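=== RUN LOG ===
request id: a7f3
mode: sequence -> structure
chains: 1
length: 153
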Amino acid sequence: MRPPIPPFTETSAIEKVRLAEDGWNSRDPEKVSLAYTTDSVWRNRDLFVTGRNEIVAFLADKWRREKGYRLVKELFAYRDDRVAVRYAYEFHDDDGQWFRAYGNENWVFAPNGLMARRYASINDLAISEQDRLFRWPQGRRPDDHPGLTELGL
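=== RESULT ===
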């Protein structure tokens, strides 16, 4: 069991979103994979991933390429066992070029609170280093750091 569990309320959906953000900001593929069912199915951009082993491999590769990764997620909508999220994250590549990725995710949860389905649509925008908005130390976003709405994203 991985609380909060469905059916979601606004409060529990917001908590689920923040827990997901915190997990991804850890950049620990093994830890993040434990939030998903063993047979979880993902669509991430043009990639299709199934099961925890593929999730771990996908995330390890992602965070090898996307350096300085910092993510902010925000609840968009929820109902029963489903949550919709919008998010933005910043990273740089090996050449030092910074990007801000904007995306939307649709999540479907198993009764035990593990995510069974994740559908992600993402667009990358090249930005300059001075245009970065996510500058907290690597790891969990501080509670007083503005969210997407407050940042105008």
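=== NOTES ===
Helices lie at 10-26, 29-33, 51-65.
The longest strand covers residues 67-79.
=== END ===
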